[in-house]
Structure formats: structure tokens, C-alpha cells
Design brief:
By secondary structure, this protein is mainly α. It has 9 helices and no strands.
């Protein structure tokens, strides 16, 4: 008869929980490595950052494309989940929108090199793009609606246009150290604000 673990979990359930924790650790480590070294970074570098063996990474992600895809999806989900949390805890809807856009920019930086990594599998990339839009557009729309409803920004800003514009402003960041897209994004956000009465 199997004995429960110290937390009252069966060995099989505990093993599954450990595997899930390992997977999340690998995804977080890979995202960090991709920011500094790109998606072609050596797997051993990701394993070292995660504190796991390379076999653990290959058990969860048999190919580099599998790992890149999983990191991308993980980042999308984290960015999507952050929106409602920020809206509930920020000083104002506009503050929540600004903080979410900051996370969104971080996400865009994280996915540097994704398209090149997945060029050999265009169907996979198309599916990821759909996943991206399906998860992030509603969150951006919720934040924009809340800020407009509070009278903090002009109504009518389309979430797709805003996200696309921010994405375009992030292009070229890696190739030009003098360029900081966040400065222009701040100007863009100021342009959305409703003028305050004198």
C-alpha cells in the first residue's frame, strides 16, 4: 500500500507536482536567458540558470522550438493574468494601464528572436500569434475601457492599434543602444490622456 508524503500527497501526485514545478522553473529561466542571449542560447545555459540537468529540459521540451513556444505561451499567460490584478490593486485605471504596458514591453523584449527560431514551422508561429491576440487583446481592452470610464484617457482607442503601435516602437531596440522605446511609449501614453481642466 503506497504511503502518503509528508504533505498528505500520494507519491504519484507529489511526483507530478515536482515535474510541474521543474517545468515552471525551466520556463522562467529560459525567458530570462532569452532576454540576454536570444532564443539560440545554449540549452546548458538555461539548465544552469534553472538549476536542473539538461535531461530535465529535454524531457519536458524535446526540441528548441517546443521550448521557445512554451516560453512564449507562458509569457502571454503571465501578461494576461497581470491585467485584472493590476486593475484591482492600482491607484487608478490609468496607473494599471501604464503598469500593464510596462509588462507588455518586457514581454516583447523576451520574445526577441522568436520568429527566426520558428521559421521552420510557420503553422506553429501562426497558432502562437492567434494565442497572443486571443489572450492579450481582451485584457488591453478592459484596461482601456476602465481608464476611459474613469475619464483619464480619451475614449475610442483600439487595443489592437495600441498594442501594434507599442510593438512597432520596440523594433530596433536590440540593434541600437541609443534607442529606448520606453521614452516614446511614455509620449504615446501621454497623448492618450484626457486634458485636465485648467
Amino acid at each position: 500500500m503506497p504511503t502518503d508524503g509528508p504533505a498528505g500527497e500520494s507519491p504519484a501526485r507529489s511526483k507530478r507536482a515536482d515535474a510541474q514545478r521543474n517545468r515552471q522553473t525551466v520556463l522562467s529561466a529560459a525567458a530570462e536567458v532569452f532576454v540576454t542571449a536570444g532564443v539560440d542560447a545554449p540549452i546548458r545555459q538555461i539548465a544552469a540558470r534553472a538549476g536542473v540537468g539538461m535531461a530535465t529540459i529535454y524531457r519536458h521540451f524535446p526540441t528548441r522550438a517546443d521550448l521557445v513556444t512554451a516560453v512564449y505561451r507562458h509569457q502571454i499567460e503571465a501578461c494576461a493574468e497581470a491585467g485584472p490584478t493590476l486593475l484591482a490593486g492600482a491607484d487608478s485605471p490609468l496607473d494599471a494601464l501604464r503598469r500593464w504596458i510596462d509588462l507588455f514591453v518586457d514581454f516583447l523584449v523576451t520574445k526577441h528572436g522568436l520568429a527566426d527560431a520558428l521559421q521552420s514551422d510557420s503553422d506553429r508561429f501562426a497558432a502562437l500569434h492567434t494565442y497572443f491576440l486571443d489572450h492579450l487583446l481582451p485584457v488591453c481592452a478592459q484596461l482601456l475601457d476602465a481608464a476611459a470610464g474613469a475619464g483619464e484617457i480619451r475614449p475610442g482607442t483600439q487595443p489592437y492599434e495600441l498594442m501594434r503601435g507599442i510593438g512597432n516602437l520596440c523594433v530596433g531596440r536590440d540593434s541600437d543602444p541609443r534607442y529606448d522605446p520606453r521614452r516614446l511609449i511614455e509620449l504615446l501614453l501621454r497623448g492618450l490622456e484626457r486634458p485636465r481642466p485648467a
